[in-house]
Amino acid sequence: MFIDLTHEFHDRMPSPRLRAGEVGVRIEPYLTHAETSDAYDHKSEFEITKVSFQTSVGTKLDAPRHRFRNGEDIGTIGLERLVVEGVVVDARHCKPGQSLGLADIDLPDDLAGRALLVNFGWDLHWGTPAFHQHPYLSREVIQHLLKSGTSILGVDCANVDSTDDMERPAHTWLLGQGCLIVENLRDLARLHGKSFRFFAIPLPARGAAAFPIRAFAELR
Question: Its Gene Ontology molecular function terms (predicted)?
Answer without folding.
Answer: arylformamidase activity
